[in-house]
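FAQ: What does the model actually see?

It sees only this:
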Amino acid sequence: MRIDFQLCSPALARRVADARIDREERKGKGKGASDHAPVVVELAD
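And it is asked to produce this:
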């Protein structure tokens, strides 16, 4: 399984409130399964 990743500056990294791997997206929605699992990053203000 390939996991996508996010790159950011140290200043932006300090704003990370949560990060997770979206395993459900990998299952596909009518187009077949993907070999990638997207990373979801939530940023604080």
